[in-house]
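User: quick one, fold this
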Amino acid sequence: MKTMNEDSITLAERWRCFLSPRRIGATEHTAPAPDRSVFQQDYDRIVFCSAFRRLKDKTQVFPLAQSDYVRNRLTHSLEASCVGRSLGTMVGRALVARHYLDDVLHASDFGAVIAAACLAHDIGNPPFGHAGEDAIREWCAQPGGALDRLQLRGAQRADFARYEGNAQGFRVLTSLQSPSNRGGLQLTAATLMAFAKYPCASKTETPLDGRSTRKFGFFQSEAMLFREAATTVGMIERETGAWRRHPLAFLVEAADDICYRIVDLEDAARIGVIPAKEVEALLLTVAGGAARATRLNGIVEAKERIEYLRAKAIGRLVEEIADIFLSRETAIVNGDYDEELLGETQVAATLKQIEALSYEKVYVSRSAMETEAAGCEVLSGLLDLFFAAVSDRFDAPSPESAPVRSRVLIPLLPTQFLGVGNVPDADPYLRLLKVVDFVCGMTDSYAITLYRRLKGIEVPG
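Assistant:
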């Protein structure tokens, strides 16, 4: 006969809540088909949305790479979702058995939630990667710039001064995609909160410590939706506008980190930035040595050797991360854990070495810096143009009285990024946010092409 102690009962109840199938924004909740869970539906909704497709032309590590081999944001997101699914299913199988959850949950539910969250984890990134985020922050916060002109204060000001792709991602999922729906794509609360690695606002009442507060996860425009999702899954509120992480967010973070550390190294070897032998040695250590990489001696070509070692390294890390998560379960569920799971692995030192090498040879290489510098110029230029156009249109007594340049630019803004009746929003916070939405949603190539055309560098054919 099955028996459970009091702690197990409490944890079981928490897990049932953490994997809530309730869709945020939906007023009707229909039962899912028996062979397709609501979490699998989340994955499909993300795959089919336009913001996800645009990731194919957004910088991952090698900006505007000419090789079709190296990763972009789309392939990185797909790979992270595969790793996340494996991690989640492995952990889910153990949790379902440990807490007798099989009456409502299956191991695949954990895998599906994490796979969907991983798939979307970069969906809010602007063109040109982290350099794009920096460009938007600096443009917004420059003296006499948009924030000063609009006189934004408090958390609304911090949303732009600390502009964050993670918060933009939550906005994409819950507001910008399927905008006629409350809640946008209307994903489940479980998927949205697993996605939220930084479950806090841009400005909190008191300074907060911990890994999960280094950045922020939602803008003030989505604060109520975030609260609704966090409350639905029973996340612990630290103070108004800040919560402890959803437990599965740790696995989403780990899947992302595994992919970018291991896969960026593979890409670097592929294009010759780091010698293949050096990459092999590092990956072999992460994979667990020759005893685990038993087929290596039978592979001759360097490319295939690295691909094999990459797979073995990821497999070893997935197993170890799952074990660490399960050993820390109680602390994670209770909000007493706020560390990086990869930092507790047996190969943490080697992963740090890989990170340092990648930074030196890849992230700050001359070509990467030149392209990112150009990207900063492009984004700043586009924000200048469209913010001025929207401001002119808002201040003008009639559309015809706005400056000619602004009258020409306004039709280039999709109606979604203006306001009702194509009139800029009266709320200055939303007015600026929609301009940023427009620029942030561009692909690298489109941003460059539009900038060149609007600056007269290139005339449309």
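User: anything notable?
Assistant: The first strand starts at residue 237 and ends at 239.
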